[in-house]
Write a structure and sequence with these properties.
The chain contains 2 helices and 26 strands. It is mainly β. It has a single domain, classed as Pectate Lyase C-like, CATH 2.160.20. The strands form 4 sheets. Strands 4, 6, 8, 10, 11, 13, 14, 16, 17, 19 and 20 form an 11-stranded parallel β-sheet that branches. It has a 10-stranded parallel β-sheet with strand order 2-3-5-7-9-12-15-18-21-23, covered by helices on one side. A 3-stranded antiparallel β-sheet has the order 1-25-26, with no helix packed on it. The longest helix has 8 residues. The chain starts with a strand and ends with a strand.
């Protein structure tokens, strides 16, 4: 009997009945109808979902100029024990969402060189970043992501009316920067960055229930502390995060100080390990190695749902 454990990416969404799901894979021998994200976006209509297979081959640079859902299988799946066998991420080098693509959703993708979001009301969730996430549009939601030595925020001097939501993220070796009029909560910010701070150039924002280093908020930039509402954050002064290579490592370390009230793994919609997208997950599949001709093959599938 052969036992396989793997994850299916699936979108949790409400969409028009005519919306399509377009599958993309650059894995040799795949039956997916598209091998490049660009081709799939080219034929997609507003509201369609583009699902990327995990692959050892990078999907390259991606530009989204229409409202779509772009979804992958998550990241660090093998390292966290989500799957037994090697399960690569869907990896993109640079991601750009243009101003013509409001309400786009990016989920379950590993982005290695960075992303620029210019589409209003874009949702970026359950992704892993090893390059900066640059936000250039109002009403952006950044939720449940893992920033590994990467920064999140705007690249320009702040406005006081961005109305962004930056919640339940792990920011390891990075910083939240240049944001105004936003809600910044339930993030775990680990003190290993050149700015030596958790926040820089923040104004008129509510900042609460974060785990942050040593109470440092200013860094090399400037924060209008009188206009921000810092409320009930947890400083981990004297506590050392170490041996961090996965989000599970962060979870284990944070549990010692978080009291289930602070950081990425707290709140009403906490961080999900490995960024596994919401929807059905095949947890176990058992298939006989062989069957006699004419006989019935019994296949056992165990399915769970990630919220």
């Amino acid at each position: 009997m052969k036992k396989i454990l793997f994850v299916l990416a699936a979108a949790s969404m409400t969409m028009a009945a005519q919306a399509k799901i377009l599958r993309v894979s650059n894995v040799a021998g795949s039956s997916a109808p598209y091998t490049s994200v660009k081709d799939a976006i080219g034929v997609a209509e507003e509201g369609d979902t583009i699902m990327l297979d995990g692959s050892a081959t990078n999907y390259g640079n991606v530009e989204i100029s229409k409202r779509v859902v772009l979804i992958g299988p998550g990241y660090l799946l093998g390292e966290n024990g989500i799957v037994d066998e090697a399960a690569p991420s869907a990896v993109i080098s640079n991601l750009t969402v243009t101003k013509n693509a409001p309400n786009t959703v990016i989920k379950g993708i590993k982005i290695i060189s960075g992303a620029t979001i210019n589409g209003p009301k874009t949702i970026v969730t359950r992704c892993m970043f090893t390059g900066d996430l640059n936000l250039g549009a109002v009403n952006t939601i950044v939720h449940q992501n893992f920033f590994y030595k990467a920064r999140v925020g705007t690249t320009q001097f702040y406005l006081d009316d961005y109305n962004m939501q930056i919640t339940n993220n792990i920011i390891y070796g990075g910083i939240i920067r240049s944001i105004g009029g936003s809600y910044i909560a339930y993030n775990t910010i680990i003190f290993e960055n050149t700015e030596n701070a958790a926040f820089s150039n923040i104004i008129t924002s509510a900042i609460e229930h974060n785990i942050m280093p040593n109470g440092e908020v200013s860094g090399n930039g400037w924060n209008d502390t009188s206009s921000n509402n810092f409320s009930d954050n947890l400083e981990y002064k004297g506590f050392v995060y170490k041996d961090i290579s996965t989000d599970m490592d962060v979870q284990s370390a944070s549990a010692k100080i978080s009291e289930d009230k602070y950081g990425a793994f707290a709140g009403e919609d906490p961080y999900v390990l490995s960024g596994v997208p919401s929807g059905p997950v095949i947890q176990d599949l058992v298939v006989p190695a062989s069957v006699e001709k004419g006989s019935t093959m019994s296949v056992t599938v165990k399915v769970g749902v990630v919220k």
